[in-house]
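User: quick one, fold this
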Amino acid sequence: MVKETSAERNARRMLPALRLIQVYVPLKAARWAEARGTAAVRPRDGITHTAISAGGVRCEWFVPAGSPENRVLLYLHGGGFIFGMSSRHRAMVSNLALKMGTRALMVDYRLAPANPFPAPLDDCVGAYRWLLQQGIPAQNLAIAGDSAGGNLTLATLMQLRDDGDPLPAAAACLSPVADLSRTGANATGVSDPLLHPKAMQKYRSAYVAQQDSRNPLISPVFGDWRALPPLLLHAGEDEVLRADAVRVAELASAAGVAVRLEVFPRMWHVWQLYSSLPQAEQSLCDIAQFLNAHMQAAP
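Assistant:
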């Protein structure tokens, strides 16, 4: 177990304010602040950053110097389905791409509430199919996502399998949201330091809208888990959505999927976004090794 560091203490001090911002700051203002912060971000050394259209879907490339052209990580960012790519997401995906030595394509999918389900999922599936059309073999592809992006990762896998598309070599979910139904269970005895219950309800309502929240492509816990690729799950001990990750691991394992769940002590929702944390480094290294190992082992 990693001992508490000053970086962890400093990051934890920020969480109460972020928790309140999710509830009380109007969406338009929050998006404006996010855009201002993102505009100031510069790519990490060794990374080329480019915005593109992937068959009509807005995306951004994060390309490490010398990375092969025929291996790609498709990354689906979080943000409660209502927020776009943040500066922290760009930094984290850059870091993960460098660790993997692999190009990463992050999908700038359409956002709720203006674009509820299935628009974000359609964009993620469309971006994956665009990569196949570019000649990238499915066994050289991996998908990863955090929070809402973890939900989209699981739903994308199920949609691709059901439609008969070739599946990626592996997938990873960071603090995934897997149950958006009103009956969804939270981790018992957890007082989440980041996710406010009112914010979670806002995100759910924006994405689900008038759809059936038990639709497996909205709440993957109600789906068919058979024949999915190997799956890695990372969740924080202190996050209320830990229960979703545990349930996903149980369902996937029962269906014969090769799945591994890691719960990080003291960590909160998507702590990997805080690059100064040793636990963030540990998590991203594990994800990189897992995805690389399965892409290299694929026929």
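User: anything notable?
Assistant: The chain has eight helices and eight strands.
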